Amino acid sequence: MIVFITGASAGFGAEMARTFVKHGHQVVISGRRKERLDALAAELGDLALPLVMDVTNKDSINEALSMLPQSWRQVDVLINNAGLALGTAPAHEAPLADWETMIATNCTGLVTMTRALLPSMVERGSGLVVNLGSVAGHYPYPGGNVYGATKAFVDQFTLNLRADLVGTGVRATNLAPGLCGGTEFSNVRFKGDDAAAAKVYEGTVPLSAADIAETVYWIATLPPHININTIEMMPVCQGFSPFAIKRHL
Ligand code: NDP
Ligand code: 8X3
C-alpha cells in the first residue's frame, strides 16, 4: 500500500509511519518541519518519502503533491492526522487568531487534502481516508470551544464522505481518541509551556501514539468489504464529567 500521512513529523503521524513501514508499506510523511521529516525518513529508509507541506495553504499542498514521484502517486490510504488545539481559554477570551488556525488546519486542511486525493481513489475503485477526530468533538468541556467544534466537523464530514462513497469501493473512517500522551499535542496547546503540558498526563496512563498507530493499521488492513465508520477510544482512566451547575446559594 501507499499511505499518505499528514502531520508525520511528530506524535501519532510519526508512529503511524513507523508502523506501516514495519509492515512493508510505502509511506509519504508530510508536515511543515523539514528537518523532522528528514530525520524520520533517515530512520525509516526507502519506504518513507518526506514531503514538506502546510495543510493550511492550498498552494503548498498543490506544489507538494505535484512533486510526488510517479511511483508514489496512487495513494491507497490518506491519513488526515495533521491537527492541533490552541489554548483552553473560554470563548469570550480566546484569541480569534487561534480559532482561525484550528479551523484552517483541522477543517480546511483536512478537506483540501481529501478533495485532492479522493478522485484517484474513486477512479481506481479502492482506497481509504482515515480522519483524526477526537472525543472533544463528541463531548463539550470548558475551553474546548473551537477545537471540539473542528473535531465535530471531522465526524460529520467523514460520515458524509461515506454517504457519497457508497458503491465506489472507497472507505472512510473517523478515529476519535481521548487523552493520549507522548506527543506534542499539549505542548502545542499550551504554546510551549511544557510544565503545563506535562500536568495534563500527571498520574494517568494515557493512550499512546503506538495505540493509535496500531488502531489505524488495523482499520487499513481489514478486508475491503468492511468499513469502520467511527471509533472512539479512551484510556481506562478517562471518563465523563457531571453537568456543571452554577448554584446561587
Ligand atoms: P502532535 O502535535 O504531536 O502532532 C501534530 C502534527 O501535525 C505534527 O506532525 C505537525 O507537524 C502537524 N501539523 C500541525 N499543523 C500543520 C500544518 N499547518 N500543516 C501540516 N502539518 C501540520 O499531535 P498528535 O500527534 O497528538 O495529534 C495528531 C492528531 O490527533 C491531531 O489532529 C489531534 O487533534 C488529534 N488528537 C490528538 C489527541 C491527543 O490527545 N494527543 C487526542 C485526540 C485527537 P509540523 O509542526 O511539522 O507541521
Ligand atoms: C485531544 C483530546 O481531550 O484533549 O483531542 O480534547 S482532548
What does this structure look like?
The chain is of the alpha/beta class and 249 residues long. The chain contains eight helices and seven strands. It has helices at 11-22, 34-44, 58-66, 96-124, 145-165, 185-189, 194-199, 209-220; strands at 2-6, 26-31, 48-52, 77-80, 127-132, 170-177, 230-233. Strand 4, helix 4 and strand 5 (127-132) form a beta-alpha-beta unit. Helix 4 (96-124) packs parallel to helix 5. The N and C termini lie far apart (62 Å). The model has no long low-confidence stretch (mean pLDDT 98).
Short précis:
With 249 residues, the protein is of the alpha/beta class. The protein has 8 helices and 7 strands, in the order E-H-E-H-E-H-E-H-E-H-E-H-H-H-E.
Here the CATH topology equals Rossmann fold
Which sequence of strands runs across the widest sheet? Answer: 3-2-1-4-5-6-7
Spatial separation of the terminal alpha carbons = 62 Å
Structural class: alpha/beta
Percent of residues in helical segments? 40-55%
